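Colleagues,

For the teaching module next term, I've prepared a clean inverse folding example: a structure given as tokens, and then the sequence designed for it. I'd like students to try predicting residues themselves before seeing the answer, so please don't circulate the second half yet.
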């Protein structure tokens, strides 16, 4: 890392901090919490052999729509009033094109822009399309413009998506037709990223611009690290952020729409995943210890002025309890046991 490299890296980090302090102060204020949480998760999950699976097509569109309807009804039959409209009113659409500009995307999504809402499914035709539709439909159901919705909508959607998988297994669907390890794998990937980036963010936050001696502060304040690792990490982060900037400039040059501002894109690289990571872990917790109705209740509180700790209490999740991490681990064991043995009944539904 040359002096110019550190200068550029610090400019990026400065932009990221300015953006996040305006748009996601929850993440900045809780970096230490997520550092601990990601470390604990990585230690715990390392003993499991998780598998990504490709699932064959086996359903028609109508079957996907109908099975999803049945699951939505079991989550909350009040939601059917909305669900039964999404085809006629054009909210639900399928998109089979996998190219957008020059960059491939195959992710399903819920979008809400200026009051126009759409659920776009980009999937194959199988039971995972069902769990995806449940996930996106829940974003549609709790759509509102509040910070609590921003923080918890993935938790709600992932919980209902995981609920859908268990519902299908209990209905007799072969569990091998479901990607039941996917959220654990996703959480592992994000935990690694959080764990990697966050020590540099904490360093920048506490001690200002990074330089060649930064490893000393990390050693004293965060975790043991060698000078070589510190330098190669800084270089890696700089490289990633430069590539993001290059892609941003490319998109402007070729007039490719639908990208955010540069500071948003850079921040996204670092902070995008934690809501999914948090949502993944909380959803296992909720399915193990609580009822899906608690998730439904939570949707009613997203536009109210609660802090997140109190808000999660509405959903019977107590993140400040001493045994919170043990309960997360127990719930992940519960999840793994559910798919490794005979299907058990879902709790009191
Ligand atoms: Zn989502």
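(Answer key — instructors only)
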């Amino acid at each position: 890392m040359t002096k110019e490299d550190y200068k550029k890296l610090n400019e990026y980090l400065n932009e990221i901090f300015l953006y996040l302090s305006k748009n996601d102060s929850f993440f900045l204020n809780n970096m230490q919490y997520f550092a601990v949480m990601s470390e604990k998760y990585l230690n715990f999950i390392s003993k499991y052999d998780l598998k990504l699976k490709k699932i064959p097509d086996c359903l028609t569109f109508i079957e996907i729509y109908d099975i999803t309807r049945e699951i939505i009804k079991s989550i909350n039959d009040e939601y059917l009033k909305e669900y039964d409209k999404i085809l006629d009113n054009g909210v639900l659409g399928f998109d089979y094109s996998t190219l957008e500009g020059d960059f491939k995307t195959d992710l399903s999504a819920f979008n809400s822009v200026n009051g126009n809402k759409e659920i776009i499914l980009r999937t194959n035709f199988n039971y995972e399309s069902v769990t995806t539709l449940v996930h996106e439909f829940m974003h549609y159901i709790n759509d509102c413009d509040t910070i609590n919705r921003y923080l918890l909508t993935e938790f709600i959607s992932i919980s209902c998506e995981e609920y859908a998988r268990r519902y299908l297994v209990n209905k007799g669907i072969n569990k091998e037709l479901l990607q039941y390890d996917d959220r654990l794998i996703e959480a592992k990937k994000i935990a690694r990223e959080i764990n990697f980036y966050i020590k540099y963010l904490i360093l920048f936050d506490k001690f200002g611009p990074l330089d060649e001696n930064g490893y000393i502060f990390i050693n004293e304040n965060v975790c043991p690290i060698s000078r070589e690792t510190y330098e190669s990490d800084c270089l890696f982060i700089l490289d990633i952020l430069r590539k993001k900037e290059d892609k941003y400039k490319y998109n402007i040059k070729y007039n490719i729409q639908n990208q955010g501002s540069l500071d948003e894109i850079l921040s996204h690289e670092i902070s995008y995943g934690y809501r999914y990571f948090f949502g993944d872990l909380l959803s296992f917790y909720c399915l193990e210890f609580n009822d899906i109705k608690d998730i439904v209740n939570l949707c009613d509180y997203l536009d109210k002025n609660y802090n997140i700790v109190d808000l999660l209490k509405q959903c019977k999740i107590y993140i400040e309890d001493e045994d919170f991490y043990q309960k997360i681990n127990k719930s992940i064991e519960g999840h793994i046991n559910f798919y490794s043995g005979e299907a058990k009944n879902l709790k009191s539904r």
